[in-house]
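ugh ok fine here u go
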Amino acid sequence: MALPDGHASRNRAVWDLSKVAELQPYIRHTFAASDRFKPLKLEINGRRDRRVVCVLAEDLKHYRIFDLDFAGNEAGESMVQDVSVEGL
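structure:
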């Protein structure tokens, strides 16, 4: 699909990230500042009703997998799998 006039539209929505209350419905997980896991890169993949997110740590040895469609006990809770890659 070609872009109109060969470039992206200039009409883009800008989110004000300082208003946390407005963003709360969209937040699935936060990383605590005290956590040793420092996120570096995020990748999203999946299909309808089976969406997953992989977050790579700064040390390039750890990553976490989040199941966005996990029906947890609390609203917004997602199943997390923490993985360590040793020997790299």
